[in-house]
């Protein structure tokens, strides 16, 4: 896994829809339209440190592969999250969404999915 490094977001698709689906407050919706964050991923032993940097805030999360951890959003919401490595991809899973990151050439690509439950009718 070669995720370690500093990554600058340059393209995002359907960000507003995703933020609404995870019930992000309006303040976050407005702010994220204006800023493309920088992501720093560090790896120290069995611990990863993920830092999201914007001109307005920095947010740091640490995790160990396969271990549940708590992440706290900028507005204070808490999620239980487990990150695992699968086929060279980092997959983060919460009860609201899943995020799949992979390296493609010189880029880190992230696909984020909102989770939905269906009932048979």
UniProtKB/TrEMBL annotation:
Molecular function per GO: lipid binding
InterPro entries: Calycin, Fatty_acid-bd, ILBP
Gene3D superfamilies: 2.40.128.20
Pfam families registered for this protein in UniProt: Lipocalin_7
Family statement drawn from the similarity comment of this UniProt entry: Belongs to the calycin superfamily. Fatty-acid binding protein (FABP) family.
UniProt name for this protein: Fatty acid binding protein 10b, liver basic
Biological source species: Monopterus albus
């Amino acid at each position: 896994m070669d995720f370690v490094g500093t990554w600058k977001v340059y393209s995002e698709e359907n960000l507003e829809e995703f933020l609404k689906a995870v019930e992000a407050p309006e303040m976050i919706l407005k702010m994220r339209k204006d800023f493309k964050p920088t992501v720093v991923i560090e790896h120290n032993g069995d611990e990863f440190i993920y830092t999201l940097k914007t001109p307005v805030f920095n947010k740091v999360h640490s995790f160990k592969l396969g271990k549940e951890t708590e992440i706290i959003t900028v507005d204070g919401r808490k999620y239980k999250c487990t990150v695992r490595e699968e086929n060279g991809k980092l997959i983060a899973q919460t009860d609201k969404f899943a995020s799949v990151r992979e390296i493609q050439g010189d880029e880190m690509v992230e696909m984020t999915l909102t989770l939905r439950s269906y009932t048979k009718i």
